[in-house]
Structures are given as structure tokens and as C-alpha cells.
């Protein structure tokens, strides 16, 4: 029951406070990771260097989290704070709402600027549908990365689990590119992120399926889930887009180069209203997870 109450408290804190605007530990971790990368990155033994960088960056915080929860007077507070800092549901939905409001105001340049905070692709030439599709896709995928995955690993392994998941996920976002610079160095972070995200991604896809057009979501998940480069992004985006009756994905421009990407989902191309629908899908999923955890806690109390 305590695990469920920690998750509930952390989610309520996220709703009340949102993401810290200054001094977020993940931002500090990102700066630390950049410094470690500058020291360890090299063309020779790139994979080994990447493994070492991963260990240097991840093992100490995970160990500290594990030690802190052994200190009885602060253990509960530490757990709540770590889960609160790991999830980002409110921030994710707020970013999506900013894009939707700009589109509703017919301010395409502002919508492009807002969606740039959500995606790594180039947004300068996106049309209205492209902006909306990018925002919907980002919310669906990050629902797993920034919300459900963190909750899953906290439930499974407590504070060390949620710290491990979020730090590895952050390193994957920084280094998990299949290009000349990061293809070797980022290999360990990308593969570990795939492993840690495998079960949460499929639970996220199931969550989307249960909360929307279930048959369409199941069909899209089955037929399209394996199309993405990432073994976890495909099921999440396919099931989420199918649940909403939308189509997302397709070719996108990254660093000036067109990357061929599959389509996901079925139905219409998204608009401003659909960005808000995607945010509500994630939000409703959070409440479904919390309800399930609380019911389980009461059942086994």
C-alpha cells in the first residue's frame, strides 16, 4: 500500500507544482553527462568508453538512492521526491497545450517554436498538420518515457529503480543516435534503455488501448509496432495513435537530413484538438495506473 500512496502523492505534487523551473536534478545530470562525455569520448574503443561513461554517471546516484531509503526518518520523503522528479506528466501536457493554443490562434510560427521544445526533429518548415502530428507523437511516446516507465520501475525496484530508469533514459536521449559520433559511444545507453523500457512500453500501449478505440489500437499495435527503429517506441505510438483514431509518423527532417519514418495509427491527420486529446489520454492513463496500484494495495494489505 505504501508504494501506491507514494506514487499518488508524487502525481499530486506534479499536478500541483509541475516540473521545477530551476535546479531540476535531471538538468544538472545532463550537464554532468556532457562533461563526462567530453572527457571520455573517443574514436578508439568507443563502445568501451560509452560503457565506462554509463557506469560513472549512473551507478553513484542509484547507490545513493538505495542508501537514502535505508534511513528510516527520511525514506518516505526521499521516495516521494524521487518519483515526483522522475515523472513529467504535467509538463508534457502543458507543452502540448501550448502548441494546441498556438494552432488554434492561427499562429503557425509560435506553434513551430512550441513543438520544438517537445521533439528533436527540425520544425521550421512543418505545416499545421505536421506540427500537430509531432506534438501528438511526442506526448504518446513520452507518456512511456517520462511517466509510465518511471512508475513501473519504482513499483518494481523502489527508489533505485526509478533513478536508474530516468538516468538511463536521459542518456539515451543525449547519446542514443545512430550516427558517426554516437553510434559506438551511445551504444550501451541505448541498449540498456531498450531493455529497461521493454515491459513499460507494452504496458503503456495496453493502457492506451484500454482507454480509447481498443480494436483499432490493437490492430495498429500488431501490424505497426515493429516498424520503428526503437523496439519500444513503435508499440507505444502505434497503439496510442490507433486509440485516438489518428495517423502520425512519416518522414521527418533531423539536422537538415530527411529521415524515412513509417506511419503509425489509422484515421485522420491530427489537429489542435487532437493534441489536447493525446494529453488527456496520458492523463487518464496515469489515473488508471494509480487506481490499479491502490486497488492492489488494498487487496494485499
Distinctive features:
single chain; 301 residues; mainly alpha; two-stranded antiparallel ribbon; two-stranded antiparallel sheet; globular
What is the fold's blueprint, element by element?
Elements (H helix, E strand, L loop, with lengths): L1 H16 L7 H16 L5 H23 L3 H15 L2 H16 L3 H9 L11 H48 L6 H4 L1 H24 L3 H11 L8 H12 L2 E3 L2 E3 L2 E3 L3 E3 L6 H28 L2
Antiparallel strand pairs: 1-4, 2-3
Helix pairs in contact: 1-4, 1-12, 2-3, 2-7, 3-7, 4-7, 5-6, 5-7, 5-12, 6-7, 7-9, 7-11, 7-12, 9-10, 9-11, 10-11
Concise summary:
This protein has twelve helices and four strands; from the N terminus they run H-H-H-H-H-H-H-H-H-H-H-E-E-E-E-H.
Number of strands: 4
What is the domain tally? 1
Low-pLDDT residue spans:
none
Question: Mean pLDDT across all residues, rounded?
Answer: 91
Shape: globular
Biggest sheet architecture: 2 strands, antiparallel
Computed structural class: mainly alpha
Strand order of the largest sheet: 1-4
Beta-strand residue fraction: under 5%
What does this structure look like?
The chain is mainly α and 301 residues long. α5 (89-104) packs antiparallel against α6 (108-116), α7 (128-175) packs antiparallel against α11 (233-244) and α7 (128-175) packs across α12. It is globular. It has one domain. It contains twelve helices and four strands; from the N terminus they run αααααααααααββββα. The mean pLDDT is 91.
Amino acid at each position: 500500500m505504501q508504494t501506491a500512496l507514494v506514487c499518488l502523492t508524487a502525481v499530486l505534487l506534479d499536478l500541483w507544482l509541475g516540473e521545477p523551473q530551476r535546479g531540476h536534478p535531471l538538468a544538472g545530470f545532463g550537464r554532468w553527462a556532457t562533461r563526462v562525455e567530453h572527457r571520455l569520448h573517443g574514436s578508439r574503443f568507443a563502445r568501451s568508453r560509452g560503457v565506462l561513461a554509463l557506469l560513472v554517471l549512473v551507478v553513484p546516484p542509484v547507490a545513493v538512492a538505495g542508501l537514502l531509503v535505508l534511513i528510516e526518518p527520511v525514506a518516505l520523503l526521499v521516495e516521494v521526491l524521487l518519483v515526483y522528479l522522475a515523472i513529467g506528466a504535467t509538463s508534457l501536457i502543458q507543452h502540448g497545450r501550448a502548441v494546441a493554443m498556438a494552432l488554434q490562434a492561427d499562429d503557425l510560427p509560435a506553434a513551430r517554436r512550441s513543438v520544438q521544445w517537445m521533439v528533436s526533429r527540425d520544425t521550421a518548415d512543418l505545416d499545421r498538420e505536421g506540427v500537430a502530428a509531432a506534438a501528438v507523437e511526442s506526448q504518446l511516446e513520452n507518456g512511456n518515457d517520462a511517466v509510465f516507465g518511471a512508475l513501473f520501475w519504482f513499483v518494481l525496484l523502489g527508489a533505485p529503480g526509478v533513478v536508474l530508469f530516468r538516468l538511463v533514459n536521459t542518456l539515451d536521449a543525449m547519446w542514443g543516435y545512430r550516427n558517426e559520433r554516437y553510434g559506438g559511444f551511445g551504444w550501451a545507453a541505448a541498449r540498456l534503455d531498450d531493455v529497461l523500457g521493454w515491459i513499460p512500453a507494452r504496458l503503456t500501449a495496453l493502457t492506451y488501448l484500454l482507454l480509447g478505440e481498443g480494436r483499432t489500437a490493437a490492430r495498429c499495435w500488431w501490424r505497426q509496432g515493429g516498424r520503428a527503429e526503437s523496439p519500444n517506441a513503435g508499440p507505444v505510438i502505434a497503439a496510442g495513435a490507433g486509440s485516438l483514431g489518428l495517423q502520425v509518423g512519416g518522414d521527418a527532417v533531423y539536422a537538415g537530413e530527411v529521415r524515412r519514418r513509417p506511419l503509425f495509427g489509422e484515421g485522420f491527420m491530427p489537429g489542435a484538438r487532437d493534441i489536447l486529446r493525446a494529453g488527456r489520454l496520458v492523463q487518464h492513463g496515469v489515473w488508471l495506473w494509480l487506481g490499479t496500484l491502490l486497488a492492489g494495495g488494498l487487496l494485499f494489505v
